[in-house]
Amino acid sequence: MQVRERLAAAELWQDNDLVFCTRHGTPLDHYNVLRDLRTIMRKAGLNQNEWTARELRHTFVSLLSDHGVSIEEIPLLVGHDGTDTTERVYRHQLRPVRRSAATAMDAILHDVG
Predict the structure, then answer these.
(1) Which residues are within 8 A (CB) of 25 and not within 5 positions of it... i.e. 6 or more apart?
(2) Per-residue confidence of the chain (113 residues) as pLDDT tens digits?
(3) Most buried residue among 6, 54, 68, 75 by CB atoms closer than 10 A?
(4) What is the DSSP string of the chain?
């Protein structure tokens, strides 16, 4: 993809040996990233005034966790060094864990009754 961008930019391309860069090869800054994120959100049908990058990150982690992705794998996807930050800050159970305890207790009481 970057080769196509280099060709399209022609003499405007600045080779800074970057993996992620602007369409002219210059370093990304937060304005570039935010502009691109807003474009992606608009194309996805999300209201850019209702979502932030932080909220999308929390949602990403929570949805992965809720769909059975292991807590050891999620930090690798979001760039955390370990599971601590992922568990403490980002992972929010969408379906309360208490549900499994309630189901177990229901089965126990059913067996007793």
Answers:
(1) 5, 6, 9, 13, 14, 15, 16, 18
(2) 878 888 898 888 998 888 888 888 899 999 988 899 999 999 999 888 888 888 888 888 888 888 888 889 989 998 889 888 888 887 776 555 556 777 787 888 887 65
(3) 75
(4) -HHHHHHHHGGG------SSB-TTSPBP-HHHHHHHHHHHHHHTT--TTT--HHHHHHHHHHHHHHTT--TTTHHHHHT-SSHHHIIIII---SS-THHHHHHHHHHHHHHH-
Distance of alpha carbon 35 from alpha carbon 23, whole angstroms? 13
Give the position of tokens 């807590």: 71
Distance CA 61, CA 64 (A): 5
pLDDT at position 87:
84
pTM: 0.58
